[in-house]
């Protein structure tokens, strides 16, 4: 049974990973007609592309893919390759001169682990080309290849995790790239990645812009853009349960919410609860405690 983000029918995920440079890109492909989408951004240091159009009041409702990238701002170039891949398939927002793919993107700062390498357009294209509905692997893959936690003291490697939460016919999937300044815990409060050193945290002076957790949520339920935004907000709330402290002035946490609209209706309260369960589980699966190189 597929208990990852791709357990939502129509959602595909692909990765490009540079194990040596510890960076990569992960692409989430929507069905050809796109997904209703919105997002929530917390923390003071997000690195994004096409983020403004995800606000509930903006006109464009559907996106065709999401790109999660390493390499800090340099990695945003990977989204160009995803756009090129979709354009070759004739997928995009309809315009008089042809379809225009809508591909929001967000990055993590992974340069502390792997150095100055960053994925570009070719790497984004490669990740999109390999996207499939197979269960999403967890660990140091794709955008999670250089992710780390506990950077208020010293980086401890984390990665990418994915999970699915169900209740009856309702389901929400989550994919998380976990790169916070704080520590990562499981739902029971056990330290998974980081140091658990409150005294060191209180005395720390971390650098801004080097810490971000990225999350993608997906559901088949037919929800509107405002509801997708509220689903993303629920995902942010879940981060505070397993990343401590979360949403700090040094983080740039981003949660995207996608809805294919191809499944049965479900109350937003149910979807929000499932989103939180899925995020917690995805973050737990991302933590592959080992020393940073």
UniProtKB/TrEMBL annotation:
<dbReference type="InterPro" id="IPR016117">
    <property type="entry name" value="ArgJ-like_dom_sf"/>
</dbReference>
<protein>
    <submittedName>
        <fullName>Peptidase S58 family protein</fullName>
    </submittedName>
</protein>
<dbReference type="GO" id="GO:0004177">
    <property type="term" value="F:aminopeptidase activity"/>
</dbReference>
<dbReference type="InterPro" id="IPR005321">
    <property type="entry name" value="Peptidase_S58_DmpA"/>
</dbReference>
<comment type="similarity">
    <text>Belongs to the peptidase S58 family.</text>
</comment>
<dbReference type="Pfam" id="PF03576">
    <property type="entry name" value="Peptidase_S58"/>
</dbReference>
């Amino acid at each position: 049974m597929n208990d990852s983000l791709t357990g939502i029918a129509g959602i595909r995920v692909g990765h490009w990973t540079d194990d040596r440079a510890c960076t990569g890109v992960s692409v989430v492909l929507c069905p050809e007609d796109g997904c209703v989408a919105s997002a929530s951004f917390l923390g003071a240091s997000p690195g994004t592309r096409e983020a403004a159009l995800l606000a509930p009041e903006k006109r464009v409702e559907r996106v065709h893919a999401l790109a999660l990238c390493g390499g800090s701002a340099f990695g945003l170039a990977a989204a160009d390759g995803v756009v090129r891949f979709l354009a070759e398939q004739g997928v995009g927002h309809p315009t008089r001169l042809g379809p225009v793919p809508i591909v929001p993107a967000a990055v993590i700062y992974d340069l502390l682990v792997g150095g100055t390498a960053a994925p570009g357009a070719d790497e984004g294209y490669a990740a999109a080309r390999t996207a499939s509905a197979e269960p999403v692997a967890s660990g140091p893959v794709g955008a999670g290849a250089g992710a780390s936690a506990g950077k208020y003291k010293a980086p401890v490697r984390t990665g990418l995790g994915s999970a699915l939460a169900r209740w009856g016919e309702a389901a929400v999937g989550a994919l998380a790239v976990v790169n916070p300044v704080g520590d990562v815990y499981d739902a029971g409060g056990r330290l998974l990645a980081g140091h658990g050193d409150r005294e060191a945290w209180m005395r720390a002076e971390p650098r801004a812009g080097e810490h971000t957790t990225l999350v993608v949520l997906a559901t088949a339920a037919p929800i509107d853009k405002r509801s997708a935004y509220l689903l993303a907000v629920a995902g942010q709330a879940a981060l505070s349960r397993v990343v401590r402290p979360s949403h700090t002035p040094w983080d740039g946490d981003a949660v995207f919410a996608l809805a294919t609209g191809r499944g049965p209706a479900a109350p937003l309260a149910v979807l929000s609860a499932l989103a939180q369960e899925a995020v917690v589980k995805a973050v737990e699966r991302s933590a592959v405690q080992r020393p940073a190189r």
